[in-house]
Design brief:
Elements lengths: L1 E4 L14 H18 L21 H9 E2 L2 H9 L6 E3 L3 H8 L5 E3 L8 E6 L4 E6 L4 E5 L4 E5 L20 E3 L5 E5 L6 E5 L4 E6 L6 E6 L4 E6 L3 E6 L12 E3 L3 E4 L6 E7 L4 E6 L3 E6 L4 E7 L8 E4 L5 E4 L3 E5 L6 E6 L7 E7 L2 E6 L3 E6 L4 E2 L11 E3 L4 E3 L5 H4 L6 E7 L6 E6 L6 E8 L1
Parallel strand pairs: 12-16
Antiparallel strand pairs: 1-2, 1-3, 4-34, 5-6, 6-7, 7-8, 9-10, 10-11, 11-12, 13-14, 14-15, 15-17, 18-19, 19-20, 20-21, 22-23, 23-24, 24-25, 26-27, 27-28, 28-29, 28-30, 31-34, 32-33, 33-34
């Protein structure tokens, strides 16, 4: 989790320089190699191999390994005295430690009569912004536990009707955290606010159907995906609106059809490979070049149903949430690397995100699950060795509907449509609501 390359005192080796560590390292590598070489009951469709099968390191590599301390105390002490030693820490260390030691506790958030939270982001260390199916943009203060409503931006054209007010499905903050992009009052339009004041800047008009996802390419450029099977490239305004306090109306720089795709469901920007990945409801993943905004390839996903969410690891790996499992794809070939089956029957994947090498999965059964990509298994508890780590959401609130009487006979659990970590990784905001479309209700909780 933490690495510190210790500098030896003159004429001595550092305290972590123990030759037995090399033997332990080789034994672990040998055991892992044997495990990987064992033939599974069902062979994987795509297998990655290491560059070399040799167990021997060069003397220089051995010296660096023995000089590197993985003790978190050494990392903290080196940082405190500002020692000239190369050091790094895994950003997911605190999250992983708290999860494996059962330290997270939920504080339910009361949302009144709102309907289903679809998206959320941390604005600061004390504020979370989220959007709902009932077209409300809200800011929750985790200290005072207060809720503030942000006015949604009106369209320029005459109001098209309630069928175009289907909720705020996505919101994203740009890398410098100066702009917030989300849906407008008309779900087919884009709205951009300035941060931290949340003053309205502009409304983007282009799509003919609901905007379901969006992603920032940098501090200026933004891409949206819609049910009209199109992707739009936008440039955020550089300054305040010309007609302040009223917002401006802008058009996209480019509008592209998603060839071979029907209804764009999810978007993500792959920084490592400078490409945009789009997921469509007909079971395809599409890749666009971020520099030219041209579609480069499409691939039909194997037997995937109910594609909902898409996430990218820093290395470029894609995670796709399906009806009964999560699919990991190699970004270079779009081939399946791993199919992560759910540990619970009927567990639809509703949200996914990467934090380091840990994949967080929000489900339709009110469970938050955690998968260790490097270990190739779900995160295991350090307290209960036979159990995997899960966070179970509280019931939330559901409003009975005459057409949904059949659902009332089943024990209700909320679906986790969205989750997000704060910068420290020690707090998780989870939210959602009933999974069946006819049911009206909400759920939100703060884990800390």
């Amino acid at each position: 989790m933490a690495q510190t390359v210790r500098r030896a005192i003159e004429g001595r080796y550092p305290s972590c320089y123990l030759p037995n560590r090399l033997k332990e390292r080789r034994a672990k590598a040998r055991a892992l190699r044997l495990q990987q070489q064992s033939k599974p009951d069902k062979p994987e469709d795509f297998v990655c191999y290491s560059d070399s099968d040799s167990e021997e390191e060069t003397p220089a590599q051995q010296h660096r390994i023995l000089s590197t301390s993985y003790n978190f105390v050494d990392y903290v002490r080196s940082r405190e005295i500002q020692a000239p030693e190369p050091r790094s820490v895994d950003p997911s260390y605190a999250t992983r430690h708290m999860l494996t030691h059962d330290m997270f506790r939920e504080t339910p958030v009361s949302l009144g009569n709102m309907n289903k939270v679809f998206c959320s982001q941390w604005l600061s260390d004390r504020q979370v912004v989220f959007g709902t199916k009932c077209n409300k943009l809200m800011v929750y203060d985790v200290r005072s536990r207060s809720l503030d409503a942000i006015p949604t931006l009106r369209p320029r054209a005459p109001w098209p009707g309630a069928e175009h007010q289907t909720g705020i499905h996505a919101l994203q903050i740009n890398p410098s955290r100066t702009l917030l992009a989300t849906g407008a009052r008309n779900s087919c339009e884009l709205a951009i606010y300035s941060l931290p004041t949340l003053d309205p800047l502009c409304v983007g008009e282009a799509h003919k159907d609901w905007i379901l996802d969006m992603c920032w390419l940098d501090d200026e450029f933004l891409v949206t995906g819609s049910r009209d099977s199109k992707l739009a490239l936008w440039r955020a305004p550089a300054g305040p609106p010309q007609r302040a306090p009223q917002h401006d109306y802008v058009a996209p720089l480019a509008l592209r059809d998603c060839r071979a795709g029907q209804k764009v469901r999810a978007l993500t920007f792959n920084k490592s490979w400078r490409e945009i990945a789009a997921l469509t409801l007909n079971g395809y993943i599409h890749v666009f070049n971020a520099e030219t905004f041209r579609q480069t390839l499409s691939r039909k996903l194997p037997s995937c149903q109910d594609l909902v969410c898409l996430a990218t690891q820093e290395s470029g790996m894609y995670a796709i949430g399906c009806k009964s499992y999560t699919l990991l794809l190699d970004c270079r070939t779009l081939q399946s690397v791993k199919k992560i089956t759910s540990r619970y029957n009927g567990c639809g994947i509703r949200s996914a995100s990467f934090r380091g090498h840990m994949l967080t999965i929000g489900t339709g059964l009110g469970l938050l699950m955690f998968y260790d990509v490097r270990a190739g298994k779900y995160l295991e508890s350090s307290i209960h060795s036979s159990k995997t780590v899960t966070l179970k959401a509280s019931r939330g609130y559901v409003f009975p509907d005459e057409e949904a009487d059949g659902f009332n006979q089943v024990k209700y659990v909320p679906a986790i449509y969205t989750h997000c970590y704060d910068d420290s990784g020690t707090r998780i905001f989870t939210a959602g609501g009933p999974l069946p479309a006819p049911l009206v209700g909400n759920y939100a909780g703060l884990w800390q």
